[in-house]
Design brief:
- This protein has seven helices and seven strands; from the N terminus they run αβααββαβαβαββα.
- The protein has 183 residues and is α/β, with parallel strands linked by helices.
- Strands 1, 2, 3, 4, 5, 6 and 7 form a seven-stranded mixed β-sheet that branches.
- The N and C termini lie far apart (39 Å).
Length: 183
């Protein structure tokens, strides 16, 4: 008769934070909002999605300043690199994710990402599609550069609101993981 194999005990790990409050207490999440809009950056109109995203990030416990408004394309890449250099934990962009020829935020974002997290972008599109079928036209991406999470949201207030509804459910856990937290 063969004796049963007893697995060796797993090594002891530091306990994972139990709550979002514990993660935030260890070090507040530093967030930045980058609005990609040729017209808003030129002063043609005031952006309204950026302040909504700032408000939601603050409600989630993030330390966040007013939105940075830049033209779409390479200035988005520059803004992401500046955020990384400043030690920001998460950047949420707004705008430039559609199919218009001037919408270049996904390409500007991919230029700096180390890797993508496709599930976030897919979930954002899926969340909005039942009420706004055009949500599936968003080409927004999500991913990581260094230890900084980057998420592209549409420029509309509705798209930003829907995107934050999804992101809010995983933001603290994602940042905790990027900081080296346990699963």
């Amino acid at each position: 008769m063969t004796e049963p194999i007893t697995p060796e005990p797993a090594p002891e790990l530091a306990p994972a934070p139990e709550t979002a409050a514990e993660v935030l207490a260890s070090a507040p999440i530093r967030a930045r909002v980058v609005v990609a809009s040729n017209r808003a950056s030129a002063g043609v109109y005031a952006d309204t999605s950026g302040p909504l995203i700032v408000e939601r990030l603050a409600e989630l416990g993030c330390a966040v300043d007013e939105p940075v408004v830049v033209p779409d394309g390479p200035p988005v890449t520059e803004a992401l690199r500046a955020a990384l250099a400043a030690g920001v934990d998460v950047v949420v962009t707004s705008g430039g994710t559609g199919v218009n020829p001037t919408d270049r935020t996904p390409e500007a974002t991919k230029a700096v990402l180390d890797y993508e997290i496709p599930g976030i972008a897919e979930a954002i599109r899926a969340y909005g599609a039942p009420t706004v079928p055009a949500a599936i036209l968003s080409r927004g991406v999500a991913g990581v550069v260094g230890r900084m999470l980057v998420v592209n949201l549409p420029g509309s207030r509705g798209g930003a609101k829907d995107g934050m509804a999804v992101l809010g459910t995983v933001l603290v856990h994602t940042v905790d993981q990027l900081r080296g937290g346990d699963h």
